Amino acid sequence: MTRGTTAVNATQTTPPHPARYDEAALDVLATRGDPLADATVATLIERGEVGDLNTLMRFLTTAGDRLPERLPAAAAEYFEATAMPPDWVDWDVMERARLFFADNAAHINTGLSFAAMPVTYAVPRLARLLSSTPSLAYPSRRMAGTGQFVTYLMRGDSFAEGGTFVPAAQKVRLLHAAVRHHLREGGHWDVARDGTPICQEDMIGGFGTFSLLVLDAMHRLGAHMSEEGAEAYFHAWRVVAALLGCDMSAVPETLTECRAYLDLYLRRGLGPSPEGVALTTRLTRLYEDAVPGTLLDPMVPATIRYLVGDTISGWLEVARSPWDAVARAVPVFLGLLETVEDSGPFAEWALDRVMHHAILTELRPEYGMPEYGTKAPRSGRWVPPAPVH
């Protein structure tokens, strides 16, 4: 596969088909950042304009807003270049993704919180990066930011004038570039050992974690997902990858390709680290504090262990308890509730209450709960791609 030296911006045409993933390909991706955003941040720092940008970015909250007149030229060029979604977006599929999210918001949030985030903590390079960055070191901030970001994406007006998703993506992309600059230029990062911070390998790995790994967690929880719904959710995350500066010539195009990438990425990166343990401890405390009382506290580590497995849980020092067996029974319980959900209002209410606890209190107004009447079809259920050995 031939990769260019610059990341693909949000106006790229239909991305080329990626070649087979191997160690050499990911070694190259580990050296690359996001040239467009990186150049913007470097110019702003060189000209002493970062303070002006930080102040004026507060006013850039919705798509279609006029750029502030005092916005530094480099920033204005960046915001104009990244204002449009990729021209290969399939809007019918995006609508299916929105409905999929509306029907599965709580399951998706559970996958993000109890599977995707712990797995990122089990990649020592990522754990060190998150721990060294104040804005990312606390799970509450990262979870709230991720939850809000996904909710912005899945709104009906996410790409319309007045929508909030595109400006949020533009800011996240600049934040990543600022973190890269701070760690690399400030001597806070071992490039020889860990490669470029927030490199293309990790950005694409994050895309796979938030898409396929979340679908895997939902499948393990017994969520009823159609092939069409799962593929639509994956397509939506490919759009996110493009807007966040991923090299789309290397981003998987299908769920099967994503499995190949993610399996290799995790085999290369997973392992124990003290930073990963500390981040996981904060995460479990966050969710224990979110559930009233202490009786159900052991369900938090039990759910993490059930979704990520014993090896990763061991590296992260996730506590064992008798509740581990209860966590294994959760998919059976949810499946029974979904089966009888149509039979009466009590079962519908019970399923609503069970999944409601998966969403942190401060995120509930953003997420809402699954819309009744938009239930996923029971036929054509999604089957995860096979692992790559």
Description:
The chain is mainly α and 389 residues long. It has a domain at 26-34 and 88-269. It has 18 helices and no strands. Helix 16 (323-340) runs antiparallel to helix 17. It is globular. It starts with 22 loop residues before the first helix and ends in a 22-residue tail after the last helix.
Q: Pick out the low-confidence regions.
A: 1-19, 340-379
Helix coverage percent of residues?
A: 55-70%
Radius of gyration equals: 21 Å
SSE topology string:
HHHHHHHHHHHHHHHHHH
Structural category is mainly alpha
Count of distinct strands: 0
What gap, in angstroms, lies between the N and C termini?
Answer: 22 Å
Estimate what percentage of residues fall within beta strands.
under 5%
* Main sheet properties: none
Q: Averaging pLDDT over every residue, what do you get?
A: 78
Number of separate helices: 18
State the shape: globular
Key terms for this structure?
389 residues, 60% helix, mainly alpha, globular
Secondary-structure map:
Elements: H1 23-29, H2 35-46, H3 50-56, H4 73-81, H5 91-121, H6 124-131, H7 139-153, H8 165-185, H9 191-194, H10 200-220, H11 227-243, H12 255-269, H13 274-290, H14 299-308, H15 310-315, H16 323-340, H17 345-356, H18 364-367
Helix pairs in contact: 2-8, 5-10, 5-11, 5-13, 5-14, 6-13, 10-11, 10-12, 14-16, 16-17
In short:
The protein is an all-alpha fold. It is built from 18 helices and no strands.
